[in-house]
Amino acid sequence: VGELASLMNVSPTEVISACFSLGVMVTMNQRLEADTLLLVADEFGYKIEFSDADLEESVAEEEPDLEEDLVPRAPIVTVMGHVDHGKTSLLDYIRKTNVIAGESGGITQHIGAYNVKLENGQRITFLDTPGHEAFTAMRARGAQITDIVIIVIAADDDVMPQTKEAISHAQAAGVPMIIALNKVDKPNSNPDKIREQLSAMNILVEEWGGNVQSQEVSAKFGNNMDQLLEKVLLQAEMLELKANPNKLANGVVIEASLDKGRGYVTTMLVQSGTLKVGDYVLAGKNHGKVKAMLDERGKPMQEAGPSIPVTILGLDGAPTAGDKFRVFEDEREAKTIATKREQLQREQSIRTKKHLTLDELGRRIALGDFKELNIILKGDVDGSVEALSDQLQGLSTEEISVNIIHQGVGQITESDVLLAAASDAIMIGFNVRAGANAKDLADKEEIEIRTYSVIYAAIDDVKEAMEGMLSPEI
Ligand code: GDP
């Protein structure tokens, strides 16, 4: 009650009496039910949206794992890069050539993720939907599952706009990158030129004294692919990836579909614990008992531990990619929560969390826990983007640092909007607008896009917002 009152800038007594008029007797420190919250906020002209975190709250908090229960797990890898630079070829090559000891033939099924065992016995899990859009869409839903990103760059081409985007998206997520300089079999390939272009973006590869690993490869012919995978393992070692396999499983939904013969088919990636046939699973707002479990080769399995992708049969619907899943001791608990979530979702109709806008900025700063202002900047020419970027970063104060998490030339794209949603960033366009699809997505995700044609106007707005003085945009 107290918190809600202060958020709405009214006195707690007013909230208490609003509750009273709804027939709910409350005190200052009481927690309000979701539907009461909605009605009371509405009284004062506010709209409440529940974030995924609020929905999760209905699920009891998990105990943190004890250090001695943790064991190493395989790294989870996403491949990104500019179109035609070889993402699919790279994933295909690994899928087809790396077979579990004793098995012949590669993986033929597409289930959204696959796990390979290398000759030295170590394992790597690849997410099989390449590209930064899928990666960031998951992140926008609160699911960060990737440990390492492979950025594929064709060495017979240049660092392209989508390469830059992919790098920004990986960096915004704080996920380490490994650069695959692809197509080195081509006579006109020039990997040094790419290293040079990367260094101009402050990305220095190891050969040049930096700390970003890179590997020349040919995804088409398989040259040096082993070395690339070794570098993935080396990076994984540095990350010390661990999980506790000895508990009820939880993880993330990778994809889901309805199969005529088998019912709902859901691919999930176990993050910790072990998933078993017969477990009761809650995934997003769907639930069910695991009737069967299959690996990426279509083979039945009885259990799956951390970092292992599995396809399960038995859910009562298709959850959304990025939904978290969890196993429950008994079916009733899973069912109750699933129903509750469905209700909450219906109430809020859209499921997005409230994103940052410039108007909101001053308020969040006043609340005191706001430390970083993320900005995505797109403009019509390189020079003005650079100038604006420098000046915006110059607005950083001791309390708040202004980070340009992505900047580029060209109109505002869907992937920019997704990045803004995932990183709670402000979108600024300078002499550019959002494309139609990007605009639709921004409306849906409630991301504000500010466009300017005068540099100082943009600077002034951000500055004023940081000082909490921006008058709301009409
Ligand atoms: P994606 O759009 O990034 O997924 O790129 P693809 O994997 O579809 O590759 C685009 C084109 O480049 C295809 O025609 C591939 O055969 C070709 N290609 C990919 N990797 C290599 C390589 O290492 N060498 C050569 N010569 N061609 C490649």
Automatic annotation (TrEMBL):
GTP binds at residues 81-88, 128-132, 182-185. GO terms for cellular component: cytoplasm. Residues 72-242 form the Tr-type G domain. GO terms for molecular function: GTP binding; GTPase activity; translation initiation factor activity. Signal peptide: none annotated. It is found in: Cytoplasm. The keyword Cell wall biogenesis/degradation does not apply. Its main location: cytoplasm. Keywords: Coiled coil, Cytoplasm, GTP-binding, Initiation factor, Nucleotide-binding, Protein biosynthesis. One of the essential components for the initiation of protein synthesis. Protects formylmethionyl-tRNA from spontaneous hydrolysis and promotes its binding to the 30S ribosomal subunits. Also involved in the hydrolysis of GTP during the formation of the 70S ribosomal complex. Belongs to the TRAFAC class translation factor GTPase superfamily. Classic translation factor GTPase family. IF-2 subfamily. This is Translation initiation factor IF-2. It comes from Chryseobacterium koreense CCUG 49689. The gene is infB.
